[in-house]
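Progress report, Aim 2. The chain analyzed during this reporting quarter is listed below.
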Amino acid sequence: MLSSLVVIRCIPEGFSEDEPMELNLIEVGEDFFDFFKIEFTMGRDFSKEITSDKDSAVVLNETAVKSLGWEIPVGKQIKSSRFMNRDRKPVPAMVIGVVKDFHNGSLHEEIKPTIYRYQPDRHTEILLRIQPDNVQETLAFLEKKWRELPTHLIFIYHFTDTTLERQIYQKDQRVGKIFTFSAILAIVLACLGLFGLASFTAERRIKEIGIRKVLGASVSSIVFLLGKEFFLLVLIANIVAWPIGYYVMHRWLQDFAYRIGIGWWIFILAAVAVFVITLLTISYQSLKAANTNPADTLRYE
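Predicted structure tokens for the chain:
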């Protein structure tokens, strides 16, 4: 149903033979586009009822049409040494349809101009869609049926989603795990540091807190007094971290041909999360110091 991708040199209609173009070629079997639910924007799909489709029919993707500059590609011809009839004689291929662009590789790369040729007798892979229930039983059934076929090939299978994750995005997943672990470790260490600093600050200012309470200061005002220094430091840290974070994320996203934008709301959300974590970390020591009986802290003064 599917052969490997190759790059071919071809002469599209209206182009000079001295300036051949390079297009990706994928040879497909029956129901390829229907199997992957790829929509046609123009023309038709390959048909086994039309014998000429096997020898001289091709389908282009939208990127290929744009690169060729054709407004109406259906009916145009493309010459290539790869296009031969059953007698091994070169024949020009006629465009019978155009499909929407879709990725058959990594999102790190742009969609390439691609030409699809109908070759149902030349497969390197057979694609199947199975139900997620009873996967092992289904694989055992497929292997049994495969052994009944007159072939010496070994039954080897793989799942498309697993293959894509392992071969294409394995590096990204590894980087993501490293960043996640580093972020969690940094947050834990920062919280321990904040907790220790809050304890030290509360202990150092315990008599000041006692005097303020004697003079009528409320618990909330004392908590605010102890916390404002930490919040000021957190604000400065955010201001320093925002441009660095933006630069690192921008550089990483440059490796993708199709990427999201970095919205300002991400930094605001991160800042709010940091302030909440800071508040939760220092609140215990701040409340403990604010609720201390002034008589206990000032009895020796």
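Residues 235 and 271 are 8 Å apart (CA to CA). Residues 170-204 form the longest helix (35 residues). These observations will guide the mutagenesis work planned for the next reporting period.
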